[in-house]
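ERR on first pass: missing label on line 2. Operator R.T. fixed the label and resubmitted. Corrected input:
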Amino acid sequence: MDQSQTTLPRRFKVVGQRKRRPDGIDKVTGRARFGADMTMPGMLWGLVLRSPHAHARIRSIDSSKAEALPGVKAVVTGADFNGERNDVSINCMAGDKALYDGHAVAAVAATSRQAARQALKLIEVDYEVLPHVTDVDAAMKPGAPVIREDLITAGVEPVPTKPSNVAARHEIGKGDVEKGFAEADLIVEQSFRTEATHQGYIEPHACVASVSPDGSAELWVCTQGHFMVRNVCAALLGLDSAQLRVTASEIGGGFGGKTTVFVEPVALALSRKANRPVKIQMTRSEVFRATGPTASSSIDCKIGLTKDGRITAAQAELRYQGGAFKGAGADFGAMAIFTPYDIENVKAVAWDVVTNRPKLAAYRAPGAPMAAFAAESTLDEAARRLGMDPLELRLKNAAREGTKAAYGPTFPRIGLASCLEAIGNSAHYRTPLGPNQGRGLACGFWFNFGGETCTTINVNKDGTVGLSVGTPDIGGSRASMCAMAAEELGIPYEKVRTVIADTASLGYNDVTDGSRVTFSSGLCTIQAARQAIQRLCQRAALMWGIDAEAVVWEDGHAKPAGPNAGKFEPLSLAEIAAASANTGGPIAGHHEVNAEGAGVSFGVHLCDLEVDRETGSVRVVRYTAAQDAGKAVNPDYVEGQMQGGSAQGIGWALNEGYVYGDDGRLQNAGFLDYRIPVASDLPMIDALIVEEPNPGHPYGVRGVGETSIVPPLAAVGNALRDALGVRLTETPMAPPRVLAALAAAAE
Amino acid sequence: MTVTVTTTINGDAEEFVCEADETLLDVLRDHLGLTGSKEGCATGDCGACSVMLDGRLVCSCLVLAAEAEGRQVETIEGMARGRELHPLQQKFLDAAALQCGICTPGFLVAAKALLERNPDPSETEVRYWLAGNLCRCTGYDKIVRAVLETAADMKSADMKSAGMKSAGMRSA
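pass 2 clean. output:
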């Protein structure tokens, strides 16, 4: 099927308006039900026992004392995971080794939380503590403790004969970098490190599982993808997908961190054993210790330019660790690192490394922010040395329509240059800096994703419409779906109700990730509405006794066209729906697709900050983000994505980072010591929405969820360089590092 | 050890039995079905469980349920008057001051406490008052604007009703 879309300029009636979100009322009154808000009759409380060691062999687990405790109904260990024992399974419940501080080793279900807590203390685990490694560069060195005995590096020739901590090598490139560097008048070469950060969603993972003796099961869970949860849990526990019905609760933030499973299969395994519903709700400490942080990274970056600012070559080596399992996402970093620019000669080599840390989960544009930190900081340095305005340098090299990216595609219409111009035209860009203030600019790129999607529209007899989508609403997407359905059908926004259908009620949908929902579920909604319209026209034709081809749909009404034009009064959607029993029964529209054409995304951020040279404290005083949304379906929530991603990126740049002790234990597993930005840390964040329509979507929509976290690390770093006169190359750029950099510069 | 507690929640008399070490948050959520207060950390760092205890803003995860004996507890569930939303709730809805919504009840309870104490706060005062409430979605921009706009709306509504009263007095 031809998936290309025609994007004609059109006057939207609903799309583009700041409509009130349909789920909002429940969220401002406390009625909305999130993961931990569900209870079931006879429900037990589940708790997980976690390894206190970074790396240890599990010699034995004795749970007899815990099982004998009154109120305890089940204890499970790795032995109860009787399906596929893949990485996800082993991450949810350890096998013969604990691979990081916080790794689950057993779990209990009891009639009260108190009994479950007491039972955890009675489980005896005999550990043989093994040497550990938590740093990416240390893990790659010869002689480092090898943490996965079966891991052979992929992507290198000859194939290694011995296991190591290097999971894979990837290479992206085009042209000839040696030739490109030879043509350069200036070569800037720098190395950077970023510490792992956590997604920091305020809602800890929570679920309620209920498995019946006949094997049928229900799961209520906060997740970015309940179909993924169903498929993965069924595979890990040897259940039939059809027997496991998963319902997505409201979700209290995810940012990629809820695109996999942690406690869900554990709760199912406990429920299966206890024959009772089981609720598991993580503590904040468990969230930090055992759920997906992002990768930490170490990157070398080299950029060559002519003296008039044309980039001749760009090269990078990226080393990412993503915890004790392969898949650190360095390949995404390599694909993204130089993509904002039209460069003839590019080479990026990526190394995926394992360490004794929790398994990485996606975090908003996974792999890209740290890559952009390296590339955009290096480019900033180049602009300084060339005496060029950093915005002008970027405009000169910006990728545009027709640019071939090093990772493969040739871009159709894209919005980077427009974003740069929007920043250049902003009042912020012309605001003079105060004492001890600095200004930094950075660009960011994210791929965006489409993926497997299906939606159903049901036309109700009273003229309202029910829309079922399969992608959990993480930031207002039900509002966007209502808007697109209303736009296409020509009915008021308030007449559409969108629900997130459970896994028994709709076909498979990929998770809410890759900035894909407004694009993919939106595209699917529009196509489902078009099918419903076709059927509404057929029904109208039947009512009039004319050919269906002679009916058109305009402004929410079927109208006779062609030779019949004007012969009959137009019929509204409500009138056709009310008569549907006489014209063939219920009216619905459905669409299913593996969506392509998501449309890449670019953003440009401008940061002003002020440094206290006594304390090293840094305060962001002005911040502006420009981003291409293609078409902003609901500008309020597009701005929200841009502002939220900016704040997360600022936190990553200045405050946030995992701190491991020499013992391999995480030392800051709480919001007091892992400090995310609070309201008093930030200024207002100006969001400039740029709209370069995406040719792959009927309304021109591009995903907007992720790109906003890509530029801030470098925007902040470049502003710090401007304020301090010295460059920081490692995140978090916290006060001790600022003071150390100032001291070093003074020497 | 269990404790029997008699208290008032959102104006209604309540009696419950709890363990001596249970928090007010756990009792609200698990015994009384008031799940609008959220657990984000259970250590008083995130503010998602914010409630009023005798008119004072507290993290209900840091209060023992037994401490509610004889006192007045106000939660997010008591903020609207029947179908009529509090102006802050309405403004959060209208101004898109929420994304995922998990922190929203705590922000609303805390913001209401601020406006009761300081009806005309500056942006800085709003930001520092709300610094105990974590939001990971919004970057705080629309939340802070919503609180400032609500304060302005309530002030002009007060001035209007005061003006009407004084006008009424004159005509009488």
